[in-house]
Amino acid sequence: MRVHVADHPLITHKLTVLRDENTPSPVFRSLVEELMTLLAYEGTREVRVEPVDIVTPVAPTTGVRIAEPKPLIVPILRAGLGMLEGMVKLLPSAEVGFLGMARNEETLEPTTYAERLPDDLSGRQCFVLDPMLATGGSLTAAIEFLLQRGATDVTAICILAAPEGLKAVEEALHGREVSIVLGAVDERLNEVGYIVPGLGDAGDRLYGTV
Ligand code: URA
């Protein structure tokens, strides 16, 4: 598992405002989108491209374009949805699939309640979006889902992670190669599975408590 923490003062600044309990939902939503665009920049460093010939007003040249098959972006519902716009902005030609996962608040185990993904993911580059890598349960389940459908190239993009969750994902992957791009690694998980200091419940802060 390759972990990259996108250590950049702009990211840390935006994260600080995001963490603040006084930041209202509309600002929180815009910040998640902005942070996502910055993290997407880091997360797509190895996006597959192919050569393309073009002619500038001055001369012919060869550039690159995003290769086929198109990358697949998979936000984990519901909080991952808040990250989608920021990612699509940077990778507009990607396709988008959805994975609905909720954790049982007592066992903290993830369950899949919705899925809209291509049956065959062979050769697809997949980008999983989940803002909070807490216990690692839902991210592991999502990654397993994609690997079982044939994906061989998976990058997870998360805003915050707990060290315990990172360790759990790594152990569950048994050496299978996956990249994780993060805004920050926080101190720890608390006894009810929240990241400390974290930012609270990302879904609630994005969308309210419904
Ligand atoms: N999910 C959240 O939204 N926040 C946490 O701190 C942990 C899991």
UniProtKB/TrEMBL annotation:
Belongs to the UPRTase family. GO terms for molecular function: GTP binding; magnesium ion binding; uracil phosphoribosyltransferase activity. This is Uracil phosphoribosyltransferase. Binds 1 Mg(2+) ion per subunit. The magnesium is bound as Mg-PRPP. It is an enzyme of class 2 (transferase). Allosterically activated by GTP. The keyword GTP-binding applies. Pathway: Pyrimidine metabolism; UMP biosynthesis via salvage pathway; UMP from uracil: step 1/1. Uracil binds at residues 195, 200-202. Pfam families: UPRTase. Keywords: Allosteric enzyme, Glycosyltransferase, GTP-binding, Magnesium, Nucleotide-binding, Transferase. It comes from the Bacteria. Its EC number is 2.4.2.9. GO terms for cellular component: cytoplasm. Its cofactor is Mg(2+). It comes from Agromyces flavus. Catalyzes the conversion of uracil and 5-phospho-alpha-D-ribose 1-diphosphate (PRPP) to UMP and diphosphate. Residues 5-209 form the Phosphoribosyltransferase domain. 5-phospho-alpha-D-ribose 1-diphosphate binds at residues 78, 103, 130-138, 201. GO terms for biological process: UMP salvage; uracil salvage. InterPro entries: PRTase-like (IPR029057), PRTase_dom (IPR000836), Upp_B (IPR034332), UPRT (IPR005765), UPRTase/APRTase (IPR050054). It catalyses: UMP + diphosphate = 5-phospho-alpha-D-ribose 1-diphosphate + uracil.
